[in-house]
User: What shape does this take?
Amino acid sequence: MTSHASIRVGLPEVKAPSPSPPSRQIAVLALLSFAIPLSTDMYLPGFPTMTRELSTDAAGVQLTLTAFFFGLAAGQLVLGPLSDRYGRRKPILIGTGVCTLATALCAVAPSLGILTGLRFVMGFSGAAGVVVGRAVVSDLASGTAAARIFGMLMALGGIAPIVAPLAGGAVVEGPGGWRAVFWVLTGASVLMFLASLFLVPESLPADRRHTDGIGSTLKAAVSVLTDRFYLGYTLAFCFASATLFCYISASPFLLQNVLNFTVGEASVAFSVGALTATLSSAAAARLVGRCSPRLLLRVGLVLLLAPSALALLITIAGQLSRVWALGLVAIAFLGLGQVFTTATALALERVPYAAGTGSAVLGTLQSALGAAVAPLMGIAGGHTVVPLFLGMTLCALIAVLALLLTRNRGATTAS
Assistant: This one.
């Protein structure tokens, strides 16, 4: 009997998960994880053009990114608990279907305001694949197996932020401009819907669902939010993610306005950083059987904080160059790969009895922080990156401090 027994009263019993889900399911979950980096990274090369065509400024265009993150946060908060009650399959199918329609409408949006609203809908509906996908992994695997799967998903999903800016740069420079990007994203959404329809079976049996309505959902939420270990790992994950959102939002202006890269060169530079995070996630997936996930998480956070702080100091001193900027960002991305792989598994391992809710809380906070930091990156204009590296440093520091909640840890699992 653990200290969590009292807050699990009324929740379904947890059945022992299988060691690992089938490889085709992992492949589809990786495809679903493409939705977020595709929807954020692919249209980044078009930001400077969008400011002119939509008669706005850097902060105005970044608002479309903020709206997407707010939608992503709200969608995970709603769809995660619903998947604990109704199963995993229905939320994924409905979400990807709505996301496809909203993406197509973005391509023909006549104004910044309408585009911003549609981006919110995209984020809300697209959240289904992410939040429910994490819950599916938690349904089917635990412990080291789950950490390996999350590492594989991060590595496979990392292909999207590598390809997205390269493809986006090519599309933006074509005759369709930035609007053509959303037609490409519409096609990707259709593919995700079909893959979910034919290749993702239900992973949550009826006897493990929360069938007592809102009361059961609230019990699950209280159970999750009162586990300090879960909160520690979740906060570490989310604030580490916030450093990435800082970079995503500010990278077009860093690379094109400050470092004077062309659109094509900027796309390549962004992809190199994403490749670093992808390789790091793949390495973490292999190392997790030999090293403690908690140790890998600590190493990742150090690799994230140190180069962010150094980049801030160099920028303030007026000595930022292409070599310094790209080199330090690459090291930070190396740390991000370690954090993403391990923190997710460690957090959800604490709450297997409410995986959908636990995934929702993690994803909602992650997206809310992304929505909060994105517009701040343009607050000083499009020709300075002090806000970028200050934001990355502060978020990385908070992620490190969050691990204090996991000190004097007893069992590795919540059972």
